[in-house]
Amino acid sequence: MDGKVKKGFLWGTASAAYQCEGGWNEGGKGESNWDQFCHGPKNVKGYTGDVAADFYHRYKEDIRLLKEGGHNTLRFSISWTRILPDQSGKVNPEGVAFYKDVLKECRENGITPNVTLLHYDIPAWLEDLGGYANPIFSDEFAKYCKVVFEQFGNEIPLYVTINESTHNAYCSYLTGNYPPNIHNVQTLVQVCYNLVVANAKAIREFRKLNLTSQVGIVHTTNTVQILKDTPEYRIAQRRGDLFKNKWVTDPAILGKFPEDLFPLLEESGIDLSFVKPEDLDIIAHNTIDFLGQNCYTRALVKPYESGETNYYPNNVGAGQKTIEGYTVKGWFQTDVDPNTPKNAWSREIYPKTVYDMLMGIKKDYGDIPVYITENGHALYEEPDENGEVNDDERIEFLKSYLEWLIKAQNEGCNVKGYYAWSTTDCYSWINGYQKRYGLIYIDYDHDLKRIPKKSYYWYRDFIKEHTED
Ligand code: BG6
Prior knowledge:
five-stranded mixed beta sheet, 15% strand, 469 residues, eight-stranded parallel beta barrel, beta-glucosidase activity, single chain, globular
């Protein structure tokens, strides 16, 4: 496959505050739920993001590397508790100054910032009050977003309210591997709802300021596919799509929940008394300007057979052979294609998913601008005897996904940017530091030295060769 993307396309990489910043208690920052979890007894593996890739102190070096790598954008997130360290709502000037410096550095290096307001780390005090499950969550989140919009205004051209609300909710309230480590389907549904409301309330604050910036949400659409075309499989596919995607993307883009969602949830025994008409009104009037899509793989489903509702991630790596997946009682469960390759964390490698996803968005939502806000390949890796990291497998992965992306744009999909996950190696939630995604290697044993991997140079050349003049 050949082809180029249109001029003006955003090419970059992505990261998130807790995973790359470090400086967890520096500069007046307050404690987040991840600080609390990682420092507590439930963190059985013992890894923390206390130092991570130390972006907090080394952002200048990292942003310079991005420029040298031919990037014109960077996706990063703001740590809520760096801006508002405690429940008083008092703004931390040092936190604001840090992000102002990062933004200045981006500007001076020709890097367009794409900034996420919530990438999994909420204040510890809010977590103690029930976190996402507490109905006050959406108001607290909107208050924080208002501060960010007022402080940074048009300095940030692309704002993302929330990263992967459902994935976060499934890990936190179903699998229970993310804080607050709960397994409760009723609470899970309420959390997903609260996050939809929180997104809309944040957008309402954004619109009040009449900024020239744009606001979006980041979702991870695992395009839901089936291996058999029967009526039962098609029902499972629709239910999988509701569960994985549509209860985030429909309200965010169309301003309403899918019509079949609430009846199905009630049929499954969920008490929906938390749904309030005033929330639905806010959702209806506050939709996004663009959609961010994290794209790693597709979701293969089949009709429900047995088992309780759960999500089974692989946070073990090569030591765990089971395929990551879902069971949603009465709705669907994960299917496996034995013929496709899987990575060491048992995730299916299926490059065409980016094309199928973009085509699906075009069909369901028309021309809404889309950015691929994450796409990447995890590897165990270390430098060779020459000190080089030859990640040919990652290059193959990125190349194959990008070819499908270019094809989709050439066929009329409104995809406007691409971010490889991740900028540097960083903390992988629960997995720790052996699971690496970066285009830049971090030598954790030698003063966090940055070593651009082979993929970093490959990406620089790919950008040059595949962008229209
Ligand atoms: C996405 C998240 O779900 O996947 C990132 O937005 C995350 O924060 C990435 O790091 C990869 O996940 P993991 O668990 O393999 O590190």
